[in-house]
Design a protein that fits this description.
The chain starts with 5 loop residues before the first strand and ends with a helix. Strand 7 and strand 8 form a beta hairpin. It has eight helices and eight strands; from the N terminus they run E-H-E-E-H-E-H-H-H-E-H-E-H-E-E-H. By secondary structure, it is α/β, with parallel strands linked by helices.
Length: 208
């Protein structure tokens, strides 16, 4: 995957999409093979990888007993974010969470937690996004501004690897599509070459 690409991974349940993203994110170790990053093994340059990588997975990795502002302060401090207080308020406002900034995250709905995960991305300003079903739980308004965020992130040179079942949206955003089947990459297409019907037929008929 080259710098500046927006890659969508598709495949049926069990194809290995989430596992692959967890390995890329360094949350799991591969049973064989390796991840290379900028010409070296990922583990040889792990701190740099973690510094520039942001992810959204099925695990929110938020501190439920802390409020949203304090959650962002923790991550912002770890990532060395400058002007932390003002930037924290700014991303909370963008994600429509400023009015609940002092409430414990454990009381948030799933959609609010997802918005806080997105606020964390915005605060830490990664260069690479690893996204596993990032639109799940978002309402229509949140869905739209997050789509706009991803488009702007990509247009500014960011790299994205995303799993989503929202095929129409994925094809709209992506430049490249990787098709996974039984833990292997079967096909590699330019997104502009594909239609939604093709993707649905693959998934429905397992013709991958």
């Amino acid at each position: 995957i080259n710098t500046g690409e927006f890659v969508m991974l598709i495949g049926n349940n069990g194809a290995g999409k989430s596992t692959l993203l967890r390995i890329i994110s360094s949350l799991m170790k591969p049973s064989k093979g390796q991840i290379n990053f900028r010409g070296t093994k990922q583990n040889d340059n792990l701190l740099e990888w973690l510094r520039i990588m942001g992810n959204i997975t099925h695990e929110n990795r938020l501190y439920s007993d802390l409020n949203s502002k304090d959650n962002l302060r923790v991550f912002g401090t770890l990532y060395g974010v400058e002007n932390l207080e003002s930037n924290t308020d700014q991303v909370l406002q963008k994600t429509d969470l400023l009015h609940v900034a002092r409430l414990p995250v454990g009381n948030f709905s799933s959609g609010m937690k997802k918005r806080l995960m997105i606020a964390r991305l915005m605060l830490c300003k990664p260069e690479i996004l690893i996204l596993d079903e990032p639109f799940t739980g978002l309402d229509q308004h949140s869905n739209q501004w997050f789509e706009n965020y991803l488009m702007a992130f990509h247009q500014q040179g960011g790299t994205v690897i995303m799993v989503t079942h929202q095929l129409e949206l994925g094809l709209k955003l992506a430049t490249r599509v990787l098709v996974l089947h039984q833990q292997c990459i079967q096909h590699d297409y330019s997104a502009s070459e594909l239609s939604i019907d093709q993707c649905i037929n693959w998934l429905d008929n397992n013709e991958i």
